[in-house]
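A reminder from the course coordinator: this example appears on the midterm review sheet, so study it carefully.

Given structure:
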């Protein structure tokens, strides 16, 4: 039997998830257009400042109850959410694809990430472990405990419109926090759909109003979260420009932020690489999601002796790429998010030409009737130099830079010589090369792979990057610790009061 996505009927409104909805009809609407066909999908009311304050007050009240719910019980509620996402995987994945423009396979994959993080969070809910330590004082015991923080604000980017929320929210919830989510203004409908999908679970489990909140709007709504001392942790995913503004605002109130910002990811291809592995990994990494992943492969650094071969193979692989409607599974590459992104692509192409770059695969706009949204561009490859300003910059489009090297240490130096530090990879069958790349003198990125590309990640590992990528870690491993506060406890079960460090204090 076909399930029907419980999308709300018009008008769609922000608010808390289990009934109350706060909105103002006087505000200009956020209009969501599909980059696939240029159609207006829906109009969404943005939250006003008054809406925002009521949402945060409701979240604060919810936290006083939610933090007392045992963590495994919170995990059980997240488990039920995972079941809901399994039920609506096809519908939500299709909406992600239609609203954001990524391929249907990738849209479904994004919902699968939600399901996976729900499963992960369920297990995590029974593993919020603290350490115990041996005290230097007799008859004393030391331990640490982890407590919830309060309200976790989540600002998300358009390119992973639902998965990034779930990485944060599912872990934040099992840790005992409540969440206020501000999705990208470019993809508000997918966010509203997620809220609708979990509403039944929240209601069935009598979860207090305000545990899961959604506000809509652009950067102004994000700034409310950044400046608000009631937001205990602000997890922000997006451009480095946004991260700098958020980090500064949160730091000025001595708050906590978790930043997941831009990448400029490279693959080193050595003379010992298996090119049958490397070429598909490079092509998928560079053109998947039309080059709009934070982990998109933007640079490849190829050893001199195989440079021409790699160039030829890539050009022939790109010639086979089919560009078209992301909902049609026969196409490899869909549109960019909007016409502003197309302008960014064109400006980058101009900058490459001005710097003297040669295109191995030519760029271009697609303007036939099938591409009427004006958002479809050709993935391209340019021979470039690593130090050119345009190569140092993350252009969120399918532009791949081809760089060359002679000695591995030079390749690693080029790979590291960008302001960003998210994802990196080496293709080699040589153990020494692989281990050097992973060592302390190797890649400086948060993610370093061997014989797989830069793009995408499994939820089991901690995800994030260094330098201008922001330093945050989300998802697996011990990333949960960012969503809790650590408390060190010392207990004296003896009959004397010895001081630490051998200090005596006689009365
Ligand atoms: P963006 O920075 O334009 O917007 C991201 C979010 O920040 C949106 O919700 C936006 O409304 C909000 N925002 C913008 N300015 C703000 C401000 N001054 N204060 C508070 N909030 C503000 O980014 P985008 O175009 O949506 O996404 C693309 C960028 O996101 C790329 O740079 C990409 O690499 C990055 N990204 C990083 C990761 C990661 O995990 N490292 C994941 C996905 C995307």
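Designed residues:
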């Amino acid at each position: 039997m076909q399930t029907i996505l419980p999308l709300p009927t018009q008008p769609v409104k922000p608010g808390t998830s289990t009934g109350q909805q706060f909105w103002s009809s006087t505000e200009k609407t956020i209009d969501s257009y599909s980059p696939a066909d240029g159609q207006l999908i829906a109009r969404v009311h943005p939250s006003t400042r008054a809406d925002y304050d009521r949402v945060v007050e409701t979240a604060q009240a919810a936290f006083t109850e939610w933090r007392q719910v045992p963590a495994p019980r919170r995990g059980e509620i997240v488990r039920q959410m995972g079941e809901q996402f399994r039920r609506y995987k096809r519908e939500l994945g299709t909406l992600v694809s239609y609203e954001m423009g990524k391929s249907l396979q990738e849209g479904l994959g994004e919902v699968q990430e939600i399901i996976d993080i729900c499963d992960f969070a369920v297990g995590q809910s029974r593993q919020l472990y603290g350490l115990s330590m041996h005290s230097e004082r007799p008859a004393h015991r030391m331990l640490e405990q982890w407590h919830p923080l309060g309200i976790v604000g989540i600002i998300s980017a358009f390119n992973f419109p639902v998965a990034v929320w779930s990485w944060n929210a599912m872990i934040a919830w099992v840790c005992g926090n409540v969440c206020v989510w501000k999705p990208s203004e470019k993809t508000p409908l997918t966010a509203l759909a997620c809220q609708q999908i979990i509403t039944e679970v929240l209601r069935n489990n009598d979860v207090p109003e305000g545990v899961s909140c959604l506000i809509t709007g652009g950067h102004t709504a994000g700034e409310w979260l950044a400046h608000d001392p009631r937001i205990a942790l602000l997890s922000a995913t997006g451009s480095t420009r946004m991260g700098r503004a958020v980090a500064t605002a949160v730091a000025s109130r001595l708050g906590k932020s978790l930043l997941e910002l831009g990448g400029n990811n490279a693959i080193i291809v050595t003379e010992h690489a298996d090119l049958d592995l490397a070429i598909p990994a490079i092509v998928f990494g560079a053109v998947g999601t039309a080059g709009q992943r934070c982990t998109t492969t933007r640079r490849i650094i190829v050893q001199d002796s195989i440079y021409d071969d790699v160039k030829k193979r890539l050009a022939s692989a790109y010639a086979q790429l089919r560009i078209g409607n992301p909902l049609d599974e026969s196409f490899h590459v869909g549109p960019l998010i909007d016409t502003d992104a197309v302008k960014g692509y064109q400006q980058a192409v101009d900058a490459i030409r001005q710097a003297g770059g040669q295109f191995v695969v030519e760029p271009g706009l697609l303007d036939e009737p099938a591409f009427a949204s004006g958002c479809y561009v050709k993935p391209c490859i340019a021979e470039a130099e690593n130090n050119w300003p345009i190569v140092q910059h993350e252009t969120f489009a399918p532009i791949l830079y081809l760089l060359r090297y002679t000695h591995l240490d030079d390749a690693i130096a080029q790979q590291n010589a960008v302001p960003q530090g998210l994802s990196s990879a080496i293709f080699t069958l040589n153990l020494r090369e692989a281990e050097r790349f992973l060592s302390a003198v190797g890649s400086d990125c948060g993610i370093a792979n061997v014989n797989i590309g830069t793009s995408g990640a499994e939820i089991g590992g901690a995800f994030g990057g260094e330098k201008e990528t922001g330093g945050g870690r989300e998802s697996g491993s011990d990333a949960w610790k960012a969503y809790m506060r650590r408390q060190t406890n010392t207990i004296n079960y003896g009959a004397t009061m010895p001081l630490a460090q051998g200090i005596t204090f006689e009365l």
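The chain has two domains: 12-260+470-488, 265-450. The mean pLDDT is 95.
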